[in-house]
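Re: weekly structure request thread

Next one in the queue (335 aa):
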Amino acid sequence: MPEIALPEWNNYLSRSPDAHLLQTGEWGELKRGFGWEPVRVAAGDCGAQILFRRLPMGLTVAYIPKGPVYSEQCTVSSEQFWGEVDAVCRARRAVFLKVEPDAWEDALTPTPLPKSAEGQMRASAHSIQPRRTILVDLRGSEDEILARMKQKCRYNIRLAEKKGVTVRPWTNVDGFHKMMTVTGARDEFGVHSLEYYRRAHALLHGAGLAELLVAEYEGKPLAALMACARGKSAWYLYGASTDEERNRMPAYLIQWEAMRWAKARGAEMYDLWGVPDEDESALEAGFESRSDGLWGVYRFKRGFGGAVKRSAQARDKVYHPLLYRAYLAFLRGRE
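Done, posted below.
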């Protein structure tokens, strides 16, 4: 079997400093505690962390989030690597494998796939991670980054500072979870359990990949977020705010401080992680009149002056066609 242990996977990733957060061993260990089994596969300088979710009757679904990871010096053929992935998936009786590449839809160089897999992997309309996001360019001076933002966003950042809001690292994960619960109820989105956030902080912060920040006024927490950084990329992972002192604009200042933290770690791009999957023209035409789903956060995120990007389409490799069709029918029933 081509499976490798966690220390070997971390060693492999050390040669790919710009691999996505979701391919890190820490992310896999986070998911291990919540229904997924991480399995790491490497062949030469090509590798992937595959997450398996158990189904009834000993079946599973397999998922490669933001991968595979290909180093520039990849010496093994993609045919060999995908053959190893197939062996791992079949051994765990996967109904199908979903691959969400770490690539943009408009990328000049597509994620490498073997010729044999091109016919076997089908384009999937269903993604697990949001396909569209906003990337903020952290290159240049802080003044240059601020200058690329919308005028109202810059004003709100400065207003928060003027009104006495301060931002610092935080270790109160219980307080963060309470704040997430308030935000989820207000903005109608699901919130992870307290244990999930505790484990995420322990693993990601413990590995130097993440920071939990809190925005306060006179010692009272008003907003908090968890940001991650690896290589040239950074990600806004989770964020929350209370219903108090919102006129002090703490959410704007804490995002700016997260960007400053990421830039100090060498990040060149800050991924705001998730906006409605619409063309930018449709987003700009609709954000003032819509607040459902991710529309409310688009209004906020657009202010930071980033570029709207769409990830490459997910692809599914099917091992059990009848069960896969049942899965598609289930998804259609939820739409």
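Residues 65 and 314 are 10 Å apart (CA to CA). The chain has a mean pLDDT of 92.
Next request, please.
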